[in-house]
Design goal:
The complex is a heterodimer of chains A (115) and B (116). Chain A is mainly beta and 115 residues long. Chain A is 0% helix and 51% strand. In chain A, the strands form three sheets. In chain A, strands 2, 5, 6, 10, 11 and 12 form a six-stranded mixed beta sheet that branches. Chain A starts with a strand and ends with a strand. Chain B has no helices and eleven strands. Chain B starts with a strand and ends with a strand. With 116 residues, chain B is mainly β. The chains are: A mainly beta (115), B mainly beta (116). At the A-B interface, strand 6 and strand 11 of A face strand 5, strand 9 and strand 10 of B.
Chain lengths: 115, 116
């Protein structure tokens, strides 16, 4: 069965420091994608970054990067130079196998950036 | 980027009444729309998937007669919570996906429903 695991319910980071949010997954699909979303207290889901399983390089988008280790089935989000506005819930997600676009979300990590 | 709106953003209703939530894709055609439910401090749980012009596909455990979904056009889907009860109070989020990029979902800002 498909599964996404986020083992850190809450994380704290000092402003301007880097932080890594963990995500491990399990899937039988040979081709898959992994997504990270940010959900601030206002509730909207903000797309951050995408990693395809066959992508040769780790995805990067500005201060966000993915530490994708396929053999370990992990896709950790790295946020560099944390800002106060990064305080939010972060969800790892992947499409369910054979559906193409139905997402399964992890339980999320609450990140608090400390000034 | 693609924009999805939801209306209303907050609604309070009395137990036994019905509430309709609209989800609109503003600058793209959403061939598929998804409805999620999120309880406080929890993850998003997919309730149903709807394709334009077709009946919605509901996830296991979601009552289709209670949560009526209509996807009448490529830019509009509605979720009607019928005979709402306090346990239906939750944050409801919709998302849309284009046929050309089905793996990308664009989320609406969510609707907070409180049933008193």
């Amino acid at each position: 069965a498909q599964k996404i695991t986020q083992t850190q319910p809450g994380m704290f980071v000092q402003e301007k420091e880097a932080v890594t949010l963990d995500c491990t997954y399990d899937t039988s699909d040979p081709s898959y994608g992994l997504f990270w979303y940010k959900q601030p207290s206002s509730g909207e889901m903000i797309f951050l970054i995408y990693q395809g399983s066959y992508d040769q390089q780790n995805a990067t988008e500005g201060r966000y990067s993915l530490n994708f280790q396929k053999a370990r089935k992990s896709a950790n989000l790295v946020i560099s130079a944390s800002q106060l506005g990064d305080s939010a819930m972060y969800f790892c997600a992947m499409p369910l196998a054979n559906t193409g676009n139905q997402f399964y979300f992890g339980t999320g990590t609450s990140l608090t950036v400390i000034p | 980027g693609a924009v999805v709106s939801q209306h209303p953003s907050r609604v309070i209703c009395k137990s036994g009444t019905s509430v309709k939530i609209e989800c609109r894709s503003l600058d793209f055609q959403a061939t598929t729309m998804f409805w999620y439910r999120q309880f406080p401090k929890q993850s998003l749980m997919l309730m149903a998937t709807s394709n334009e012009g077709s009946k919605a596909t509901y996830e296991q455990g979601v009552e289709k007669d209670k949560f009526l979904i209509n996807h009448a056009s490529l830019t509009l889907s509605t979720l009607t919570v019928t005979s709402a009860h306090p346990e239906d109070s939750s944050f409801y989020i919709c998302s849309g996906a284009m046929s050309s990029r089905t793996y990308e979902q664009y989320f609406g800002p969510g609707t907070r429903l409180t049933v008193t």
